[in-house]
Each structure stands twice: as C-alpha cells, then as structure tokens.
Specification:
It is a single chain. With 271 residues, the protein is α/β, with parallel strands linked by helices. The chain has one domain: Nucleoside phosphorylase domain (Rossmann fold), CATH 3.40.50. 31% of the residues lie in helices and 24% in strands. It is built from six helices and nine strands; from the N terminus they run H-E-E-E-E-H-E-E-H-E-H-E-H-E-H. Strands 5-8-7-6-9 form a five-stranded mixed β-barrel, surrounded by four helices. Helix 1 packs across helix 2, helix 2 packs across helix 5 and helix 3 packs across helix 6. The protein is globular and about 55 Å long. It starts with a helix and ends with a helix. The relative contact order is 0.21. The structure holds hypoxanthine. The site of hypoxanthine has 12 residues, from strand 5, strand 8 and strand 9.
Length: 271
C-alpha cells in the first residue's frame, strides 16, 4: 500500500513539475465551482495516475487540479470516491494519503448532506464540529501503516477548532448564517427511512451524508488538520421530509455554491 501511494505521488510530482501544494481540497456533490476560482497550473485525470481509483458517479468528474487559490498552492480533488460505489476504504482514502506525501498540510472537505437539525434549512452551510461514523468499515482496519500514523489515532479534536472559529468570523463578516454541527456518515446509497432519520437525530447528528468521514479519519491518522463543511441539500425532519431526487440535491447545492466557494477561499487565505 505505502509503495503504491509513493508511486502515485512521484508520478504526480513528475507530471506537475514538482508542484508543491500546501492545502488539499475535496469537493462534494454539486460543489465543483470552486475550481473556477483557481489559477490552474496543472490538471490530471484520475485515470492517468498510477493506482488511482477512477470515479463512477455521474455528478463527479474525476480530475486532480493543481493551482493557486487566494495566492496559495492547492491541490483539488474534483470528484471523490464513495464506499457505496464498491471501492475499498483503502481506495476511498488513497488520494488523501497521496496528498500527504505531496506535502499537503491541511485538508478542506465539502459534501452534500441531509438536514436533521430542525433549525436548519435547505442550502444552509454547516461547519462540522464533530462526526459519528456509521460506515460499516473504516480505512484504518487492518495492519497499521506505521509510516503514515499510529495504530490508535486520537479523535478528540477531529475538526480543527481554530479553523472552525475562523470560518465563523468569515461568515459573520460576509453576513450569512453559518451553522455548526455533527455529521453522521452512513454507507448509502439509498437515502434513509423516516425511522432512520429519527434515529440519527436521536443519537446526536445534525446532518447525514455518505462521505467525508473515511477521508477525515485517514487525514487525522496522518495528523493533518481538517476543516469540513456540509451543504444541507434536503431537510429530513419528520414534518419536512419529502421524496428527494438527485436533481433537487444538485439544485440546492448550486444555490449554496457561491457561499461555499467564498468560505473555503477566504479560509485558505488566512492560513
Ligand atoms: N441522506 C444521506 N445522504 C445525503 C442526504 C440524505 O438525506 N442528502 C444528501 N446526501
């Protein structure tokens, strides 16, 4: 595994003239517009990078972008891998591990999520302050890769508290409501039943989605500080639940995209 990660990283270094990214960004469903803000230096298709998994979801495009955002060197995953697509957890987190070898110091993650907290509304942004992992597997199970991190990594401050604070200040200055909350990661791909939404709310989650937590676990294993934000694409409280289609999720994400883009850009500027 470590050898594959190293081979991917050295291919990327050659293909990008040793581009040195400071920050890594993973863009979630319907949230690709951040790429338009980047001064792109290089762009690689996942399919061309040795050992890289290839994206199958139609709403995820599958490119690694290298360039400058707010004057800082970033590497952006346009399209991520989900466990429900049939990838192993090792494959889901493979790009995050490659990012670490390329020198990435902090990870920024976005996703689309269902709202469980009754105070939320569709197209709200929620900064993750903590998470609950309900995925059936996780990327650290198996022999520990000692080169990457310890056997029993600490998860008591999984999301960087300083970056959460900075994000709240940015949102306040820009005059929009930024929510904070706990994200629960479920395997999917089906959305939840009413009883499941109720259960997720009772166990302490404010939003539910099918991604993020595996990548965050891999990043924290490597001691990389993480910032993550959800776009609430549909409300899942008993009074507001309705049938959701991917088109509705994409529409709600598109509405939130300018705020999301601004937030991540300004947050990167102050690191
Ligand atoms: N559940 C799980 N994942 C999601 C949802 C949801 O309601 N909305 C967007 N992603």
């Amino acid at each position: 595994m470590i050898q594959q990660i190293q081979e991917s990283a050295s291919y990327i270094q050659q293909a990008t003239n040793a581009f040195a990214p400071e920050f890594g960004i993973i863009l979630g469903t319907g949230l690709g517009a951040l790429v338009n803000e980047i001064d792109i230096a290089h762009s690689l298709s996942y399919a061309d990078i040795p050992h890289f998994p290839v994206s199958t979801v139609e709403s995820h495009s599958g490119r690694l972008i290298f360039g400058q955002l707010a004057g800082r060197n970033v590497i952006v995953m346009q399209g991520r891998f989900h466990y429900y697509e049939g990838y192993s957890m090792d494959q889901v987190v493979f790009p995050v591990r490659v990012m670490k070898l390329l020198g990435v110091q902090k990870l920024f993650v976005s996703n689309a999520a269902g709202g469980l907290n009754p105070q939320f509304n569709t197209s709200d942004l929620m900064v993750l302050t903590d998470h609950i992992n309900l995925q059936p597997f996780n990327p650290l199970i198996g022999k520990n890769i000692d080169e990457l991190g310890p056997r029993f990594p600490d998860m008591s401050e999984v999301y960087d508290e300083e970056m959460v604070r900075q994000a709240m200040v940015i949102a306040e200055d820009a005059d929009f409501d930024l929510r904070e909350g706990v994200y629960v990661s479920v395997p999917g791909p089906m959305l939840e039943t009413k009883a499941e939404y109720r259960y997720l709310s009772v166990i302490g989650a404010d939003a539910v989605g099918m991604s993020t937590v595996p990548e965050v676990i891999a990043a924290r294993h490597m001691n990389m500080p993480v910032f993550a934000v959800s776009v609430i694409t549909d409300m899942c409280t008993p009074d507001r639940i309705k049938k959701v289609a991917l088109a509705d999720i994409l529409e709600a994400a598109a509405k939130a995209e300018p705020r999301m883009t601004m937030l991540i850009k300004e947050l990167i500027r102050v690191q």
